């Protein structure tokens, strides 16, 4: 039997491991949706480590919440939420990052991370790759619905999902 998952606030000393988890998760999730040159760029892990160091320690992110999920002392998932940038009427929180390594999908780590960075009672929004049926189903299970807004970021089509705000429903 495997040990339980523990979710806690992220610390600066976690940044390198958080970067490793994010890069691995992107490679597992976006292969075929995103260009291989992006996913396999040797500078990608260092760039993500710099991002996490800033997200945890920089004053610009003081209102953000970053968390990690661990099993047996190893980080297996990461999450980051904070005020929308730019500000958006209708919700106070934007979920910027939520990734769990594929081997831990279905373990409850994603739900625990979501709850750690987004209060279940606050209005929130996020962008999710489309197609990414597993992630979209996860967010629907947690009360998010597609609001009909679409963007393309780095060649990946994304849909916005929101919770706790009136939305215009879109067919799925």
Automatic annotation (TrEMBL):
Q: Which CDD domains match?
A: NAT_SF (cd04301)
Q: Name one GO cellular component term.
A: ribosome
| Pfam families in the cross-refs | Acetyltransf_1 (PF00583)
What UniProt keywords apply to this chain's record, in alphabetical order?
A: Acyltransferase, Ribonucleoprotein, Ribosomal protein, Transferase
Q: Name one GO molecular function term.
A: acyltransferase activity, transferring groups other than amino-acyl groups
Q: Does the keyword RNA-binding apply?
A: no
Domain N-acetyltransferase positions: 5-166
InterPro entries from the xrefs?
Acyl_CoA_acyltransferase, Bact_Acetyltransf, GNAT_dom
Task: State the superkingdom.
Answer: Bacteria
Q: Mark the transmembrane ranges.
A: none
PANTHER family from the entry? ACETYLTRANSFERASE, AMINOALKYLPHOSPHONATE N-ACETYLTRANSFERASE-RELATED-RELATED
- Name listed for the protein in its UniProt record: Ribosomal protein S18 acetylase RimI-like enzyme
Organism expressing this protein natively: Agromyces ramosus
């Amino acid at each position: 039997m495997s040990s339980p998952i523990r979710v806690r606030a992220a610390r600066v000393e976690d940044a390198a491991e958080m970067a490793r988890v994010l890069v691995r998760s992107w490679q597992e999730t976006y292969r075929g949706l995103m260009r291989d040159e992006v996913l396999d760029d040797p500078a990608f892990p260092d760039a993500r480590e710099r991002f996490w160091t800033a997200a945890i320690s920089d004053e610009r992110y003081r209102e953000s919440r970053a968390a990690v999920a661990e099993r047996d002392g190893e980080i297996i998932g990461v999450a980051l939420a904070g005020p929308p940038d730019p500000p958006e009427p209708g919700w106070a929180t934007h979920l910027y990052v939520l990734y769990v390594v594929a081997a831990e999908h279905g373990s409850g780590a994603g739900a625990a991370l979501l709850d750690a960075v987004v209060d279940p009672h606050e209005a929130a929004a996020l962008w999710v790759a489309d197609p990414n049926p597993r992630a979209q189903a996860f967010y629907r299970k947690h009360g998010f619905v597609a609001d009909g807004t679409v963007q393309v970021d780095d060649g990946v089509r994304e849909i916005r999902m929101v919770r706790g705000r009136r939305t215009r429903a879109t067919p799925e």
